[in-house]
Amino acid sequence: MISQFVYGHPVETYAVVEDVPVLGHEQLRHFTRKKGSPQAFSCPLREEDIVYGLGETMRGINKRGYRYISFNYDDPIHRDDMPSMYGAHNFLVVDGAEPFGAFFDTPAKVVFDVDSKGDGVLTVFCESQDLRLYLVEGKTAYDTARQFLGIIGRSFLPPLWAFGYGQSRWGYKTERDVSRVADKHREAGIPLDYICMDIDYMDRYIDFTVNERRFPDLAGYAARMKERGLRLVPIVDAGIKIEPGNPVYDEGVQKGYFCLNHEGTCYRAEVWPGMTHFPDFLREEVRQWFGDQYKFYTDRGLEGFWNDMNEPAIFSSEYRTQGTEPDLDHGDPDQPERHTADFKDFFHRLDDGREKSNYEVHNLFGGMMTRASGQGLDRLLDKRYLLFSRSSYIGAHRFGGIWTGDNASTWEMLRQNVYHMPSLNMCGFLYSGADTGGFGGNATRELLLRWLAFSAFTPLMRNHTCIHTRHQECYRFRNPEDFKTIVSLRYRLLPYLYSEFMKAALRQDMFIRPLAFDFPEDRKARDIEDQLMVGESVMIAPIVEQGAKGRIVYLPEPMTEVRYSREGFSCTEADAGERTVMVPLNQAVFYIRRGKLIPVGGAASCTAELDLSDVELLGSGDACEQYIDDGFTKDCSLDRCVVHRKKAEA
Ligand code: MIG
After folding, report:
1. Is the pLDDT assigned to residue 328 strictly greater than 70?
2. Who is most buried in 66, 82, 257, 369, counting CB within 10 A?
3. Nearest-5° angle of CA 380, CA 639, CA 431?
């Protein structure tokens, strides 16, 4: 049961794509609304109720006990008291006596106080008077989340190669740098499908250009790499450099495609290329135009992209030339103001004729860039593309995935990655992942191995790190053989993972879930945050602590324990309850649910070498269904599933 409540005159966000009946304000259940600025929606929580959701916010899977702010921001210090990250995912699920979910569909700032004072009250403060509130009533928390996924439209479907392993580093500058990464992986036998090109591939950081000294023949190079089963994935930033003579700039100015300043001329903000203008992504015509620009890359054979700096990030502006240190709100919990001045300085002209400051519609900017790029790529390519963005809003999940931005090489950040995955899935962002190994700071061998063993199960599995940090490619560490084993696990699992991802996306379901969603009656499973369900049949229990030789795992039911080492898979049947499992750094352990089977494949150095239909079956079930396609087709449907049955033992 889903209903909608409309307040004021909401801005079109394109988040919900299904018709949802609008009820009168007096019919609002669960919440009491207090008018004012901000308007506040409150509901009581019982001691035992759990609050899920809020996508890309810090802290645990149960959001209870803290305060979170939806106001997209580029802040690389991901301390767990950071109130907002890069995305705004305003959906939460209250798992109480009557489970329900609520989606606050407004692009302005929203503050979620999830019982931060411990007095059993959830209050959502919406700064704008204009919003749609969607209320979802489900049988369980999982059912509630699934119903929500049903109204926001199907997840973006990346190509198979996007499920391979990717290597990235801010600092690869030239064709030689990129080739070295490719060669070293191939030499060490570490599988690899793509290499990201960070801002240095561009001509002076200008979008839709390439530095021809560094990449003299990008098209030829991309083709040669593709023959080796490797793709190039360039970064695209939000701002367009002010440079008369550049056709993208000229056309944007001439057609009025950029955001305006207080004087009604194009707003000027400094980012990587120097002074730039921001495309007014909130308008359809501008999105069309921006999306079409990706032709520069697709003409050169590129099929994958990451969109960055689209909160948008601003170093300085025509109004703020100094004081680049943002006044971040890490302190007073009753003062939700963050650094907002810049966002009040530029304006969007909406398709409905209204003009809004970026501050009023702030959280839509990055998501609309994703929509523009995704729709453009869909027009330009006759196959599926890879796209992931830093900033996002619910709805953008239909056009691309996200990565969780500038984390760090710390164990906390690995734990945060574990918590993020189910929360993002509830908000539609199935294709997501973190910078494996950590962006800021220096990764250790142990951290990277444990992190890889976790991100082997996340759809986006990319090792990325910041310039001037320790080199973090697998082959830089002692015994690359161990890294090969862990990354190979990902490839051997791809028949299962790809199939389960595609099935979940096509069914508008979650791919990664909290344990409690699958075992709602199990009191103990309800409280577990460091084990997750991946696809229909697998449970994982990642190791997220330095020096840990193993960990305690809770099994809500008897399962098959699968250990992966350089010798391959070995299975043992494990009883329900707690068990201690020892996991050396060069091994990984996961679990298959009772009565389930999963298809696993052979080793491969890239997805092009994989034969998805050549599988062996692990687990205790009799049959399983595997989704198989060519990895590119846009014509994806559940009809592509094949059934495998376990052969009777001889
Ligand atoms: O101001 O392009 O989150 O992944 O390496 C930093 C350089 C800009 C931020 C992204 C990061 C990327 C970096 N970018």
Report:
1. no
2. 369
3. 50
